[in-house]
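sorry for the late reply, my laptop died twice this morning and i had to redo everyting from scratch. anyway the thing you sent over, i finally got around to it. pasting the sequence first so we're on the same page, its 140 residues, then the predicted structure underneath. double check i copied it right bc i was rushing
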Amino acid sequence: MNDRNLLRGLLLIAIALGFGIPAIGYGLGTLDNAGPGFFAFAVSCLLLLIGVIMVIRSRLVERVPVDFKPRNIGIIVGSLALFALVSLYVNMIAAIVVTVFCAGLAATPYSVWRNAKIAVVLVAIAFVFTKYLHVNLPLY
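ok and here's the structure:
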C-alpha cells in the first residue's frame, strides 16, 4: 500500500472512529441541549466523512508514493508539546502563535506571512469558540 492519498484517508477514518465511538458513551444530548460528547462526536463524523471521501478519491486519481519524513513528524509532535506548555504557563493566544510558527518549519517553503495569516485565523476561531459557544479557553 504505497498510496499517500489512501493512507491519509484511512488515517482520518481511524482517528474519527477512535474519538467518535468513545464520545457516544459521554452522552450526546439533543441539538437544543448538547451533551458532553456531542461536539467530539460531530467533529468525528465530519472527519469520518472526509476520510471516506479521500479513500474514494484515492481510487480515482493517480497513485502518489508515500514520502516519509521523520524530521517533519518530529517538528509537528514538538509543536504540539510546545502548545501544551505555552498554553499552561502563558496563555492560549501565545500558544497558538508559537505553535503555528514552529509547525511551519515542517513546510517546504517557510513563509512568515502565511504563518501569520494562519495564526490570526486560529486566534479568531478561538475567540468565536469562547464568545459564542461559551467554551472555557484560557485565551489571556
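The longest helix spans residues 38-60.
thats about all i looked at so far, will dig more tmrw
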